[in-house]
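Appendix B, Record 12. Input sequence as logged:
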Amino acid sequence: MPTADCRPAAAILSLMVVVALLAVAAHDPPLAAHLVGEGGLVEWLQIVLSIGAGALAVRQGRAARRAGRPATLEVAIVAAMAMLCIGEVDLDRMIFGTKVIATRFFVNPTYPLSARAVAVMVIVGVPAAVGIGLLIHVRHLWRAVSDGLRRPWGQAAASGMALFVVVELVEKPLNHLSWLPPSFAEETLELVSALGIFVGLVARQRASPLRSPASAPYAS
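Logged structural output:
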């Protein structure tokens, strides 16, 4: 079944989000600052969209396994969405009381050894295990990614992920734009990236649910 072109919908929704938030910033800067602040509406929308995308990837991965296909791409998507959510809610700060990666938590003797051991297992061990698993099946992952990038859903989702990576690379300059509230540009663009990923996976789910080996292509 051909995949519906979700790119116009993703572009229109993204433009609406940006225009709406810029309008709020122009007319009510304090409200805009509140919306993009820590624990604000924009951050929670990112989390909801990321959880939704992860749930769709889990469903699609199960369908792929039932159809006799590897679910390497879906595992990568779920891992990425989990990392996005963890980063947004500062899970390490909630559990350990500090930013684990940004500080010398692992080697700081003022923290209990048991807490540091748990941090190593959770913060380092789990991502490392997922990464090793993906490397072992890198050929399956490459084929799935290449196939997805030839389809509208894959292009929409990949554009969202690429935008997120770019935002992370230029996070500090974005957070210091004098004509916008603090974190406004970063949080707005991260919301747009999450929206692109979610729209792409919704389009994939609606177009081709991966029922059986004979009924759908590898990563439709």
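The mean pLDDT is 82.
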